[in-house]
Amino acid sequence: MNKKTTIKDIAKKANVSIATVSRVLRRTDYPVSQDVKKRVFDAADELEYKPNLFSRMLRGDVSIEIGIIVPSINNPFYAAQVAASEEECLARNFIPIICNSNSNPGLESWYLEMLEERQAAGILLTTIQNEETFVKRIERLTMPALLVDQGIENYTGDRVLFNFFKAGYMAAEYLIECGHKDLALASGPITRHNRREILRGFKQALLDYDIVFNKRRIVNYDSNYDIYNIGDDQGAIQIIDKMFEEEYLPEGIVAINDSLAIKMINELHNRGIHVPNDISIVGMDDIFVSKMVTPRLTTIHEPAEEMGKRSAKYLIDKIEGKSRNIVNITMQPTLVERNSVRKVHSKIRR
């Protein structure tokens, strides 16, 4: 059995004292030259040194905890995003603390306060809030924070976001190019930044294709429904009920996410309306079950795993002093064609 590497081994290889190795690995404020730091980190990497996380925590060294706040761990998209961030944190010797806000602004703010009180090393935040006061709240945090997935207007701090405008545009454009003109957007309340951006992209696609926007085709479910809960179909049912109040059903629907799209497909089927023969639906996110349902869901792919991994990497780089630049990345959507959209014109996207 191979002997576990100690800081004594690192000191010998880097030709420095044990005390210097301890200071460098603990990232204290004690002055150490960049050359010495590099030698210590290189030696630690080469010897595959793995510090005992829990002993570091008990000793009261610099914090090794990173808070990860998301709106709903029930959402397969956020579950994938969090899993990737968690893996990166552990690989970099940090302990992730998963905080599920349940789409509750008050609970989200409470988690921020709790993480500050714990003096966490940093925070990855997927927020549902947009108010200017909340922007100032994040800017007052005493540790590095990075926004993930959903942005906040007028926020200029570190962020790894998604181009929701382009996603909304792309979904509507695909339905139009497949021959559909009477389009609807199915969503929760248009209060979050990402939903407003999807709506803006949706409307822009209609405008670019000379299709008149009908505000009655923006159909929302109440905020008290949890569409990510596998047993809660009420949000989808409420949207279908509202659509049935109109004289005609829309030809195509853009759903705000895949969970809603799948539940709407099931509810339409219960009422004798079949996707895609009678109506076409495009989802948003590309969660793993979207290719397992019938029909397989055409959707807009958002790279959850890559977003989670990269956001954790950038945050830890900031914590470790490896980067001082503002992180400002916007990841782009891609269309995933499956079977939930009927192509009215055979010449379109064969």
From TrEMBL:
MF GO annotations: DNA-binding transcription factor activity; transcription cis-regulatory region binding
Residues spanning the membrane: none
Keywords, comma-separated and alphabetical: DNA-binding, Transcription, Transcription regulation
Annotated HTH lacI-type domain residues: 5-60
Record Pfam families: LacI, Peripla_BP_3
Gene3D superfamilies, A to Z: 3.40.50.2300, lambda repressor-like DNA-binding domains
Database matches in InterPro entries: HTH_LacI, LacI/GalR-like_sensor, Lambda_DNA-bd_dom_sf, Peripla_BP_I
Entry protein name: HTH lacI-type domain-containing protein
Organism: [Clostridium] clostridioforme 90A6
Lineage: Bacteria, Bacillati, Bacillota, Clostridia, Lachnospirales
